Amino acid sequence: MQVEIKNNKERVKRYLTDYPETRDNYNKLIANIWYHDLKNSGHSPDIIDGLKMLRIIAKGDILTNPESIRRNWQKLQQDYPELRGKTWEKRQGKQSEVKSDLGYQ
């Protein structure tokens, strides 16, 4: 029971608003979202073992797609300055350096 993409953006926005530590830590954002995905699907995230978690990830029908989370995270931080973390400016500053290294202008 995966979250529909149209709802995913609002969901990510809610986490960025309610949990400011997720603004700078994409892994924390995914962990929080996946924790609630597991709870909402009837699993006990507090006691789930690693192998079962890997099977759930591989199956791909319970947990929100991490790429979708990442894209929404980036877009929301681009569009809403109040949802940016402390390292957002630093990451943006490196963008031109990376483009230069890759031969883009």
Descriptors:
5 helices, 105 residues, single chain, mainly alpha, disordered N terminus
What does this 3D model show about the protein?
The protein has 105 residues and is mainly alpha-helical. It has one domain (5-102). 65% of the residues lie in helices and 0% in strands. The chain has five helices and no strands. The longest helix has 15 residues, at 26-40. The protein starts with a helix and ends with a helix.
Short characterization:
This protein has 105 residues and is an all-alpha fold. It is 65% helix and 0% strand.
Secondary structure topology:
Layout: H1 5-18, H2 26-40, H3 50-59, H4 66-79, H5 88-102
Helix pairs in contact: 1-4
| Global structural class | mainly alpha
Q: How far from one another are the termini?
A: 43 Å
Gyration radius from CA atoms, angstroms: 16 Å
- Compressed to H and E, one letter per element, the order equals HHHHH
Shape: globular
Largest sheet: none
How many domains is the backbone divided into?
1
What level of helicity do the residues show? 55-70%
Number of strands: 0
Low-confidence stretches: 1-5
